[in-house]
Design brief:
heterodimer, A: 332 residues, alpha+beta, 4-stranded antiparallel β-sheet, 9 helices, B: 348 residues, 3-stranded antiparallel β-sheet
Chain lengths: 332, 348
């Protein structure tokens, strides 16, 4: 055996030893060193090149960064007996890698543990509150009005009333959909319920969030029916409001018409009456000078009008007209 | 067909080749290599190959919209800028290229099938579910939207979160649903801008808290809607609003047509009355004046005027009478018997 070969072999063995003693910890990883299955030392969280005893010690890697858990707790009934799908997700990290290593082992089984702990917590919280608490976040007033801006450009009294009614309706809706907790508070409570159970696994639950909340298929249908009925009712309300308003305007029109006509009539009659009065006064003054003569003249005129034509008349010789039939003026 | 080896060997031997027939054997090649006059021999070739390999991993190009994140033995050391850069060879240093200028897009509730001038969208089963959400008044709405984002901090993006893109998607859905869940169905349909702004604020805050290194460029709401079975009734509401407007407008129109006409008519009536009044008063004045004039003359010779008027009247009337009976007033024997059966009575 020549020395060159010996050096080569020793070098190779050395390199091999170094190689099996060194290990790399990535930025996203943390490591737990075990010796014959038992944990040695603190977990290695600093990234970079690290060293251990070769062969005797083993490195177990775990992720250091934020992990995501996605659960599907299935159909959950709320306090007001509405069945909903809640799809939640949670963010967690391995806070205590040694405990994690000893209890869970790997991230796959960690997911299963998270399922076992977080799903029931979600279930608990959702069933304890009414649906609106899981949906809403704040207690802000919901604007459910429909009126487009154009209609309220020149509001009549009826429209003002409608706006006021809408405001009070909003209030009614506000109380109907008011919340005490809200979604964020509920997810916070889910977190608080689940976290203690996960401490034993070295898992830190960063937060739980609701990704989706949806009605179960059957419930969805009845919700649609409700929405449709609500809309129909609103449509009807608008139509009847329109009719009412139109009727009111028509009524005003009628009233105004009558007013104008009757006032005109009154005025006209007054004028005519005054005229008639004046006429009577004028003629009365004139004819009053000699009423006898007036009656004489008028009667003669009326004889002309009434006795003309095919009439029979019986005259007596006493009549002034016929007096000369019997005697001459100088005979008297 | 038999290959005649023997004949070939004979031929080769005759040609004076050193090795035998058939393909060259492996050990003979190695022997040849070993026989080559190179110091160190085979091992050196191997080492040279490794060196070349490692050497080529020592430089790399960072694209214009990228940066390079360099890790030495897994630990982050530096971020390199676009251009040609050098690093320690593979096994010691590794570089990950991260596109920091490119704006990425995540779609929710629909999928762009073709991105040309008119993008076509399809809603596959799951992606439509992403758009289905509950509103604050417990109705159901369809809300599709787009999130556009950039990687702002490559260190965070690579190392702080496992699968940041998935987290972005889930957080986006959560944030959007949080905002929509606080709004009525009407607001979801009509106030999309507000919702986009609030969702973006919430999402960015969450992403920053999670140290994802992602910056949201914009959240854009696509057309929000109600689920298909409900749409007709929503349209009905719009129609009803228009109907109401129409009815009111028409009534106002009628009013505006009728009232001015009536006012005009009223004017006319009053004017007619005034005309009548004027007419009568003037006529009466005329009649009065006429009477006065006649009377003035009459007074001067009453008796003669009376007779004259009387006789003028008789002159006018008598010729028209068809039957005249004259009775002597001194006579007394005529029976007053009126034959009223014939025609010719005076009509009052």
């Amino acid at each position: 055996m020549n020395s060159k070969n010996l050096i080569g072999i020793v070098l190779a063995v050395l390199v091999f030893l170094v190689y099996s003693a060194a290990y790399v910890v990535d930025e996203t990883e943390q490591a737990v060193v075990t010796q014959f299955g038992k944990v040695v030392g603190d977990p290695v969280v600093e990234p970079g090149l690290q060293f251990k005893l070769p062969f005797v010690q083993m490195v177990n890697y775990f992720p250091k960064n934020l992990q995501e858990w996605d659960g599907d707790p299935g159909q959950i009934p709320t306090l007001d007996k509405t069945y909903i799908w809640v799809d939640a997700f949670a963010r967690w990290r391995i806070a205590d890698p040694i405990r994690f290593f000893q209890t869970v082992g790997n991230t796959l089984s960690a997911q299963a543990r998270l399922d076992d702990i977080i799903d029931p917590a979600i279930r608990n919280l959702v069933t304890s509150y009414s649906l609106v608490e899981t949906v809403r976040r704040t207690d802000r007033e919901l604007d459910t009005s429909f009126e487009p801006a154009e209609l309220s450009a020149d509001p009549t009294a009826a429209e003002k009333l409608a706006v006021a009614e809408g405001a009070s309706e909003n209030e009614a809706i506000h109380t109907k959909y008011a919340i005490k907790l809200g979604r964020e508070e509920i997810t916070q409570r889910i977190l608080e319920q689940a976290q203690p159970k996960l401490d034993g696994f070295g898992i830190e639950l960063v937060d739980v969030k609701v990704k989706r909340v949806n009605y179960v298929e059957q419930v969805r249908k009845s919700v649609y029916d409700r929405m449709i009925a609500e809309r129909r009712q609103i449509a009807e309300k608008f139509r009847s409001e329109g009719k009412g308003e139109a009727q009111k305007i028509r009524g005003e029109k009628e009233r105004e018409l009558k007013r104008i006509q009757s006032e005109a009539y009154r005025e006209a009659q007054k004028i005519k009456g005054e005229a008639d009065g004046k006429v009577t006064r004028t003629l009365g003054e004139a004819y009053g000078i000699d009423p006898e003569f007036y009656s004489f003249q008028q009667t003669l005129e009326s004889y002309k009008d009434t006795l003309k034509g095919n009439s029979k008349v019986v005259l007596s010789t006493d009549s002034e007209f016929l007096q000369y039939l019997k005697r001459r003026p100088s005979q008297n | 067909m038999n290959w005649d080896w023997d004949k070939l060997r004979e031929q080769q031997q005759r040609n004076g080749r050193k090795d035998g027939g058939g393909p060259p054997q492996m050990d003979e090649v190695v022997g040849q290599l070993k026989g080559m006059k190179v110091p160190g021999g085979f091992w050196l070739i191997l080492v040279a190959a490794i060196v070349v390999f490692l050497g080529s991993s020592m430089f790399y190009t960072v694209g214009v919209s990228e940066v390079g994140v360099v890790q030495r033995f897994g630990k982050y050391v530096k971020t390199t800028q676009p251009g040609l850069n050098f690093k320690l060879p593979a096994g010691i240093e590794k570089v990950t290229l991260v596109k920091v200028k490119k704006v990425e897009k995540e779609e929710f509730g629909f999928r762009t099938v073709q991105t040309d001038i008119r993008s076509r969208f399809t809603s596959s089963g799951d992606s439509e579910n992403a758009a289905l959400m509950l509103t604050g008044d417990l109705n159901v709405a369809l809300v599709p939207w787009i999130v556009q984002y950039r990687i702002k901090d490559p260190y965070n993006y690579l190392f702080k979160v496992d699968d940041p893109r998935r987290l972005l998607r889930d957080m986006s859905e959560a944030a959007m649903r949080l905002v929509v869940g606080d709004r009525s169905i009407n607001e979801v349909i009509s106030k999309r801008e507000e919702i986009a702004v609030e969702a973006r604020e919430i999402l960015q805050k969450e992403l920053d808290q999670a140290e994802t290194g992602i910056r949201i460029v914009t959240i854009e709401m696509k057309k929000t809607n109600v689920p298909e079975p409900v749409q007709p009734s929503f349209n009905e509401v719009n129609q009803a609003i228009q109907e109401k407007e129409r009815m009111i407008y028409k009534a106002r129109e009628d009013y505006n047509k009728a009232i001015p006409a009536a006012k005009g008519e009223a004017e006319r009536v009053i004017k007619a009355a005034e005309g009548y009044a004027l007419d009568r008063v003037n006529r009466a004045a005329g009649d009065a004046d006429r009477f006065r004039s006649i009377y003035k003359e009459y007074v001067k010779a009453k008796d003669v005027t009376e007779r004259r008027m009387y006789l003028e009247m008789m002159r006018e009337v008598m010729p028209t009478l068809t039957e005249k009976y004259i009775l002597d007033a001194d006579q007394g024997n005529v029976l007053p018997f009126l034959n009223l059966g014939k025609e010719g009575g005076v009509k009052p």
